[in-house]
Amino acid sequence: MILVDDGATMAFGMAIAGHVERGDLITLSGDLGAGKTTLARGLLRGLGLQEEAPSPSFAILLPYQPPLLRLPVAHVDLYRIEDVGELEELGLEEARADGLLLVEWPEHAAGVPVLQDALALRLDIVDGGRRLTADVPAAWERRWPPR
Question: Distances from the Cα of 41 to the Cαs of 14, 20, 84, 142, in angstroms?
Answer without folding.
Answer: 8, 14, 25, 24
